[in-house]
Amino acid sequence: MLVRLENELTCKCIYRLCCANADGDNLLLDGMLFPLLRQQSTTANKEFYLCLSDFVHPLSSGKTDTVGVFAATVAGDTDSLYTDDPYQHLLVQTLADRLAEAATEKMHEYIRKNTWGYAPNETLSIAELLQEKFQGIRPAVGYPSLPDQSVNFLIDQLLDLEQIGITLTTNGAMHPHASVSGLMLAHPAARYFSVGRIDQEQLEDYARRRGMPIEQMRKFLSSNLE
């Protein structure tokens, strides 16, 4: 199937390395406010309640940090391929999703070694890459560390996603479906975590920082609400 699709699908990536600082639970990316959520659910042996901003130099430090913003997509009309064969149609869509992830992986490796260059001597095998042995993390929108899909609107402001053919629905979902977006953090201690459940107080604070009505924010974060 991959051989057949070689001339049908194209992987496209875009990224931006932003001057960044943390300001509480917000990131400042090239001066733009990028609000985040913090863990607050109690679990056994939890020492810290994490937020992605914890891995970026605070504004009060006087030091400017760097945070990457990225998006990747697979261009091609996968919706219309093999519509008369449900199995092959599903296979095309699944392969397109994996290609978007693979393109992101390759882009991130290039950024670490070259454009950002914080790991120029990195020599990892495919197995080690899959185990995420590299320095830093790449939290994607919609995943547990960055669960609010609507931050794609902020990413769009930074990247202009239409440059690679990505458009957003009114809910912040990306089209084509085989697309991924998110942040890149380089701190050696950075790790993935799940924001989990948040309470009404954090919901109200987050909605205020996002500049959005609470009820609209409630829809975006319905799976994270107590």
Explain what this protein looks like in three dimensions.
The chain is an alpha+beta fold and 226 residues long. The chain has one domain (10-196): Vitamin B12-dependent methionine synthase, activation domain (Cobalamin-dependent Methionine Synthase, domain 1), CATH 3.10.196. Helices cover 27% and strands 19% of the residues. It has helices at residues 86-115, 126-130, 152-159, 200-210, 214-220, and strands at 10-23, 26-29, 32-35, 65-75, 167-168, 174-175, 179-184. The strands form two sheets. The protein has a five-stranded antiparallel sheet with strand order 3-2-1-4-7, with helices on both faces. The longest helix has 30 residues, at 86-115. The protein is globular. The mean pLDDT is 93.
The CATH homologous superfamily is named Vitamin B12-dependent methionine synthase, activation domain
Give me the secondary-structure category: alpha+beta
CATH level-1 class: Alpha Beta
Radius of gyration: 18 Å
Q: Main sheet, how many strands, which sense, barrel?
A: 5 strands, antiparallel
Low-confidence stretches: none
> What sort of overall outline do the alpha carbons produce when their principal axes are compared?
globular
Task: Give the distance, in angstroms, between the N- and C-terminal Cα atoms.
Answer: 44 Å
What percentage of the residues does DSSP assign to strands (E)?
15-25%
